[in-house]
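sry for the spam today, last one i promise. struct tokens for design, 91 residues
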């Protein structure tokens, strides 16, 4: 998906067992790689919506390609990757 700079991006994740049952990982991290290759840890900003369902809101200030990763540990060993692009806002 493509967004413009200074636009709120909601990044969501669901965690479920192989059988499809939603489950909360014992712990997790959520990191995002910015276009300049720096990595920001957004774990402290994550909102727990319901069992197995999370989101984090992020406002990109620069254009480029962003990659993010949710990593569940403990009872749910999983990694979920995603990406989005940001273009310069024009008016």
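last one done:
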């Amino acid at each position: 998906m493509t967004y413009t700079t200074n636009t709120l991006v909601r990044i969501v994740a669901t965690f479920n067992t192989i059988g499809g049952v939603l489950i909360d990982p014992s712990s997790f991290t959520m990191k995002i790689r910015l276009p300049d290759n720096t990595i920001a840890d957004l774990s402290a900003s994550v909102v727990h919506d319901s069992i197995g369902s999370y989101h984090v809101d992020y406002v990109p200030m620069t254009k480029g390609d962003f990659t993010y990763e949710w990593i569940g540990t403990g009872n749910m060993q999983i990694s979920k990757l995603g990406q989005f692009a940001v273009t310069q806002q024009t008016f």
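Strands lie at 2-4, 9-14, 27-33, 39-41, 47-50, 53-58, 64-73, 78-87. ok im logging off now
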